[in-house]
Write a structure and sequence with these properties.
Elements: H1 2-8, H2 13-19, H3 29-32, H4 44-49, E1 55-58, E2 77-84, E3 87-92, E4 99-103, E5 107-109, H5 113-117, H6 127-134, E6 143-148, E7 156-162, E8 165-173, E9 179-180, E10 186-187, H7 190-199, E11 210-211, E12 230-239, E13 242-249, E14 253-260, H8 266-277, E15 287-291, E16 298-302, H9 309-314, H10 316-319, H11 323-342, E17 355-357, E18 363-365, H12 368-373, H13 376-379, H14 394-399, H15 404-419, H16 431-439, H17 452-461, H18 472-490
Parallel strand pairs: 6-11
Antiparallel strand pairs: 1-2, 1-5, 2-3, 3-4, 6-7, 7-8, 8-9, 9-10, 12-13, 13-14, 14-16, 15-16, 17-18
Bound molecules: adenosine-5'-triphosphate (ATP).
Adenosine-5'-triphosphate (ATP) binds at residues 236-241, 244, 256, 258, 285, 301, 303-304, 307-308, 349, 353-354, 356, 366-367.
Family: Belongs to the protein kinase superfamily. Tyr protein kinase family.
Protein name: Tyrosine-protein kinase
InterPro entries: Kinase-like_dom_sf (IPR011009), Non-receptor_tyrosine_kinases (IPR050198), Prot_kinase_dom (IPR000719), Protein_kinase_ATP_BS (IPR017441), Ser-Thr/Tyr_kinase_cat_dom (IPR001245), SH2 (IPR000980), SH2_dom_sf (IPR036860), SH3-like_dom_sf (IPR036028)
Length: 491
């Protein structure tokens, strides 16, 4: 009756709306999803070329957060060009042509009609999750969803946001399978039930204005890759943050994959990965990609086939290196550190174990960003035993004052490791004893295999006065000169 009167006596619409509120839902959001047929008349040429399987519809409005994302309105017809993890790369088919990434949960494939017709259905979401979602942007007054009932199997609940609160309504199922929110008002399908209460929300006292939008996944960038693109092949080692594996990207490119342990704090390394992304130098391990959307987080870097410098120096190949090779290694590390110095980045864990060796004696600094933030806990006063004391400058070991100058001290220890083919510094001394001796002015003696001019540099790095320690810029220059001299003496 009401439908009839509304249709025929349109001049009474405002009266009817006051008497029995009716949202505009049936003519906007819900209306988009009523049909599987795609009308793309404004772009006829492309229509016939597009396979139906790649035709999608935007279920919710999405506002692009970066240049490579695409803003869409609910109901926009899209062609999905490729799927990438939590996003799809989509081209808008009507209106202004544009291509960009849209969250995969925001679109539905038109050839698989159900989700396109039920953008408000969130199946296994709990009551409290529903509340949290409805009260978060971009959801607003009038956002609603239907979920499975937590207590009664086969039944549902309708959750509706009314300004800053959420109301829940139980949707029961009769013996015949019909659904009802109010006694005596059964519906054959959930779509019919929702359409009815969207048109007449008197019983709910809250309008159903738009389907609840799912949470937006983290912003994508060029570094984020889907996990399936990587295969793990062989475990290379294990560090504080987790295991490191040799792997393949898309079954072709060899990579190293660090699998971050589940108990590491996500906020910390998300921020830190940002830091790694902006550092690029041939003497720093290059970040290739991250998989940070789900756990465990993967950090993918270039693969250095010969492992860490400490083990390498102890290997038969390492033991066979001559002085020129050792000076060359020292130059490469100073080069990478000079870059960090320019960027005002403190490494805090410079040691041979954190230098990686590749083919043709290529050396690269690793663990630079991670050491700084991720390891904050182990650098705190409360767990001072975890500090790599024998590599750490006295002011950093005693007062936690890390600086580029404390990195220079560590570099001196790294020189000692290099020119002793991987010996442990202060061998036979405990950490405590080492700190005590250093504070009294003791310094490591010159190893027999170390040229005197290199030992002078080590001593300068271990100057008790931080200001008098050389910069990495100077170290690189001086070692470069030594290298050229050593090479010419060989020829
Ligand atoms: N990119 C890589 N290529 C080849 N091997 C690697 C790579 N990254 C790490 N490894 C190997 O895995 C081991 C563990 O690396 P990881 O960086 O996790 O720990 P670490 O630096 O030894 O210790 P920590 O992280 O506690 O300082 C390294 O010692 C090295 O042998």
């Amino acid at each position: 009756m009401e439908q009839f009167v509304r249709k025929r006596l349109t001049f009474l619409t405002s009266f009817w709306n006051k008497l029995r509120p009716r949202s505009n839902l049936d003519t906007c959001s819900l209306g988009y999803f009523g049909s599987d047929s795609v009308s793309l008349h404004s772009e006829p040429t492309s229509v016939c070329l597009i396979p139906k399987s790649s035709l999608f519809i935007a279920l919710y409005a999405f506002t692009a957060r970066s240049a490579d994302e695409l803003s869409v309105k609910a109901g926009d017809k899209l062609r999905v060009l490729k799927e990438e993890g939590e996003y799809v790369l989509a081209r808008r088919l009507l209106g202004e042509a544009a291509t960009g990434y849209v969250p995969a949960t925001y679109v539905a494939n038109l050839s698989q009609g159900t989700s396109a017709r039920r953008p408000w259905y969130f199946s296994k979401i709990s009551r409290s999750e529903a509340e949290q979602l409805l009260l978060s942007p971009p959801n607003q007054h009038g956002s609603f969803l239907v979920r499975d009932s937590e207590s009664s199997k086969g039944e549902y609940a309708l959750s509706v946001r009314r300004h800053a609160s959420v109301s829940h309504f139980r949707i029961g199922r009769s013996a015949g399978g019909r659904l009802h929110l109010q006694k005596g008002r059964p519906f054959a399908s959930m779509e019919q039930l929702v359409a009815f209460y969207a048109a007449d929300w008197t019983a709910l006292r809250s309008p159903l204005l738009q389907p609840c939008a799912p949470a937006t996944p983290p912003e994508r960038d060029g570094w984020e890759r889907p996990r399936w693109e990587f295969t793990l092949r062989r475990k290379l080692g294990e560090g504080y943050f987790g295991e490191v594996w040799e792997g393949l990207w898309r079954n072709t490119v060899p990579v190293a994959i660090k699998i971050i342990k589940a108990d590491m704090k996500a906020e910390d390394f998300t921020k830190e990965i940002q830091n790694l992304k902006r550092l690029r130098h041939e003497k720093l391990i290059q970040l290739h990609a991250v998989c940070s959307v789900d756990e465990p987080v993967y950090i993918i870097t270039e693969l250095m086939r010969k492992g860490n410098l400490h083990s390498y120096l102890n290997s038969p190949e390492g033991k066979s290196l001559g002085t020129s090779h050792l000076v060359n290694i020292a130059c490469q590390v100073a080069d990478g550190m000079r870059y960090l110095e320019e960027k005002h980045i403190v490494h805090r864990d410079l040691a041979a174990r954190n230098i990686l060796v590749g083919d043709e004696l290529t050396c690269k600094i690793a663990d630079f960003g991670l050491a700084r933030l991720l390891k904050d806990d182990i650098y705190s006063t409360s767990s001072s035993t975890k500090i790599p004391v024998k590599w750490t400058a006295p002011e950093a070991a005693n007062y936690r004052t890390y600086s580029l100058k404390s990195d220079v001290w560590s570099y001196g220890i790294l020189l000692y490791e290099v020119f002793t083919y991987g010996q442990i510094p202060y061998e036979g001394m405990t950490n405590q004893e080492t700190v005590r001796q250093i504070t009294r002015g003791y310094r490591l003696p010159r190893p027999s295999t170390c040229p005197p001019e290199i030992y002078i540099i080590m001593l300068e790095c271990w100057n008790g006065n931080t200001e008098e320690r050389p910069t990495f810029f100077t170290l690189r220059e001086r070692l470069g000169l030594i290298y050229r001299r050593v090479l010419s003496s060989l020829s």
